[in-house]
Glutamate 5-kinase (Desulfosalsimonas propionicica), 377 residues
Amino acid sequence: MEIDRKTCFDQARRVVVKVGSGVLTADDGLNTDVIASLSRQICHLTRNGLEILLVSSGAMASGQKKIGLDRRPEEIPKRQAMAAVGQAGLILCYENAFACYNRQVAQILLTSDDLSVSRRRYLNARNTLHTLMAWHVVPIINENDTVVVEEIKFGDNDNLSALIALMMNADILVNLTDIDGLYTGDPRTDPEARQIPEVARITRDLEKTASGLPGVLGTGGMLSKIRAARKVTVAGIPMVIANGREEDVLIRLFEGRARGTFFGPAHGRIPNRKSWIGFALKPRGEVIIDQGAARAILEKGKSLLSGGIRDVTGDFGAGSPVHIVDPDGRHLAAGLVNYSATEIRRIMGCQSCQISEKLGHKSYDEVIHRNNMTLLG
Ligand SMILES: Nc1ncnc2c1ncn2[C@@H]1O[C@H](COP(=O)(O)OP(=O)(O)O)[C@@H](O)[C@H]1O
Ligand SMILES: N[C@@H](CCC(=O)OP(=O)(O)O)C(=O)O
């Protein structure tokens, strides 16, 4: 899918901007100058017709400084309390900054369950964001750190911003961090590392160039940004990583004058329900398939039939989300199964016409219908 950086920025109307903790914090707490500058730039761009949703980190980092802790506490309740303190100040700071331009802001705190458990909750969140956009209110989104524990976290805000871009069908995702893009190696340990201006395709080798080790205040490092880029670009949404501390970086990006790493869309846009199946839902298990089924899915646009299934992991019921994995362990697609894990174990390797005989019933020929499947690469 060849579409260049300039065209993507020129044609963008709805934009998700994510700002990392390192950009938003100073030695003594929140960096109010940066927040004032980002708010001014967002107001400038929205006056020129853009719709902008902001995903802002910074609650933990600013709470830590407010409480006066020199490092992040290990204990979960302390971390969550710290985020609660920081989030209040963060939103207040944005509210004051946007008020200078007569713009209202709204605080949206989400947990991963809000987007991944039921389609109804996902649509509720989406409807609220649509309403805010229609009112010209700037949504400021963060993870609800105070109530979530590690197992049910989005992981980090790079992932959350990708899910928001997919959910809102954004035209571009802008990730503002403390460095001007992806480098060929971790610049903290590799003096030869060079900035990469453009990535046409995200390969496994590229993922290896990025460390998952964040800066002192960040969470996912460069690796989580590349994973976010993979999610959105597969669904046809481009992403750019740029330096949030660069003067007027947002305005300059839209004028084609800022540095940054641009990840072009890998395919055309996919429908919202498919991006929900592929990227918001958490897989409950894996269905391992043979090469023939892999080719049928990837090259011929087919559904997954029982004959091509070799193995199943996990314990899930009919209707659950799973990942479809090839013999080399590559995650090819995500989909909703028509049969439970136990049933799939009994019919794998069999022809569809044998399903009734094996199970005593047959509701579907397909184990995963193409309409309920999203390719992941
Ligand atoms: N290949 C790489 N290219 C650029 N930065 C990298 C790379 N590998 C690791 N990093 C580090 O990732 C950091 C950004 O990640 P992180 O601290 O999580 O940012 P944020 O808080 O903005 O999400 C950079 O400061 C940089 O030191
Ligand atoms: N929800 C957390 C942000 C976690 C996070 O992903 O941070 P970052 O890597 O700086 O974007 C907070 O507000 O502190």
About this structure: The radius of gyration is 22 Å. The CA atoms of residues 305 and 366 lie 5 Å apart. Residues 5-274 form a domain with the Carbamate kinase fold (CATH 3.40.1160.10). Residues 76-99 form the longest helix (24 residues).
